[in-house]
Design a protein that fits this description.
With 390 residues, the chain is mainly α. 76% of the residues lie in helices and 0% in strands. The longest helix is centred in the C-terminal third of the chain and has 33 residues, at 307-339. It is globular and about 55 Å long. It starts with 7 loop residues before the first helix and ends with a helix.
């Protein structure tokens, strides 16, 4: 069997996607078993970065070229490039740590631009949609496997469940209503089982935005149909809450104890991180301290649990400005897509809501799952640009 020259970029892109899928599945497990699974996940993550870097070889193929990135993609890439500087300048880091941290910093920008450029060059493919579904299934199966093991040890609150949530906007691009409903149902079960309040809140808000924007884009928005959808969602949530209360610990109890644990002591973490930022010298304040250094330098031994605070300490005020500018640019990009009634607007709007909620009270930018956001943004913006050009 021969592959046509014009199909090589798509085939190579699928290969890079498969490597990313493997790295994500392994990293999901490593988040709960860092000692046993961390080294293997680190090797595959580094290999994935190398494979994605080889994507530029596709420029040797006739008619395949580099396209000018949009403002949103440019700002995210500039942010990543800037982040390399404080990461390389970070003290108390071994050579291996510097290499791995640089890989973690650059991978999101690489995935973002390569995805965007591939889609603009080659267009969409049913194989990409199949990949999203298969990856979501593999991540779900890996989560179930981890859950069964740690639940046996009576250890709950599995943060790795976020992987399944973050790929949902890509899965919802499928035209099959049955697959969409099944995906939402599966993600809901996983998030409730993990007892992660941030994930459940992000999912609920994201689905409501997805429905609202979807009805607007399809010119069939009606208050009655939106209300019915909302009632169905609330009913589904009520059923899960009831089933959830039958166990030893429930999500509802975790929401009820927010005033006691201050959101898993986030207020204390935020105050301490803010003090760390303000107590720096001018150089560190401007340039930053390097990748994921809040946890390293904090007396609480915790990350900032807020991306703006984390970025400001890790990459300085310069990095924070670039990061905030990228988010603002993404917001206006979504607004334009909604006004133009792009079919990709519902999924990207949902992603943005999940992004903002998770970013404010948890993390996107320093974890490997942040690449799912970059993959989604690059894929959707690329398709939107391709459709506009055609």
């Amino acid at each position: 069997m021969t592959i046509k020259l014009a199909h090589i970029p798509k085939v190579f892109f699928l290969i890079t996607l498969l490597f990313y899928c493997l790295a994500s599945v392994l990293n999901l497990r490593a988040m709960e078993y860092s000692v046993d699974s961390g080294p293997l996940a680190g090797i595959v993550i580094s290999a994935t970065f190398a494979i994605w870097s080889l994507s530029f070889v596709k420029l040797a193929i006739p008619r395949y070229r580099l396209y000018m990135p949009t403002w949103t993609i440019s700002l995210y890439c500039l942010f990543a490039l800037w982040s390399v500087i404080p990461t390389l300048l970070a003290s108390n880091s071994t050579t291996n740590e510097l290499i791995f941290n640089t890989v973690m910093v650059l991978t999101p920008a690489l995935i973002l631009y390569i995805t965007y450029n591939t889609i603009v060059n080659c267009g969409d493919s049913k194989w990409f949609h199949a990949y999203f579904l298969i990856t979501a299934l593999l991540l779900s199966l890996q989560y179930i496997n981890v859950y069964r093991e740690v639940n046996f040890l009576e250890t709950l609150h599995l943060v790795c469940s976020y992987y399944v949530l973050y790929i949902l906007p890509l899965v919802l691009l499928t035209r099959s209503k049955a697959l969409r409903i099944t995906a939402v149902f599966l993600v809901t079960i996983i998030l409730f089982s993990s007892l992660k309040r941030t994930g459940i809140l992000s999912l609920a808000m994201g689905i409501m935005v997805f429905i609202f924007v979807g009805q607007y884009v399809e010119n069939r928005f009606k208050v009655k149909s939106f209300a019915i959808s909302l009632v169905l969602l609330l009913s589904l949530g009520g059923i899960f809450l009831y089933l959830d209360t039958q166990g030893d610990e429930s999500v509802l109890e975790r929401f009820e104890t927010i005033d006691q644990d201050h959101g898993s002591f986030r207020l204390e973490v935020w105050e301490h991180t803010s003090a760390m930022i303000s107590n720096q010298d001018v150089g560190s304040l401007l340039i930053g301290n390097g990748y994921n250094t809040v946890e390293r330098d904090s007396r609480l031994n915790k990350s900032a649990h807020n991306d703006i605070l984390e970025v400001t300490y890790d990459y300085g005020l310069i990095g924070a400005i670039l990061y905030i500018a990228a988010i603002i640019s993404l917001f206006f990009c979504i607004v334009r897509m909604i006004l133009n009634k792009s079919p990709y607007a519902p999924s990207l709007s949902m992603l943005f809501v999940i992004y903002m909620v998770s970013s404010m009270i948890s993390h996107i930018i320093i974890y490997y799952w942040g690449n799912l956001f970059m993959l989604t943004i690059g894929y959707i913006i690329g398709n939107n640009k391709k459709d506009a050009a055609d």
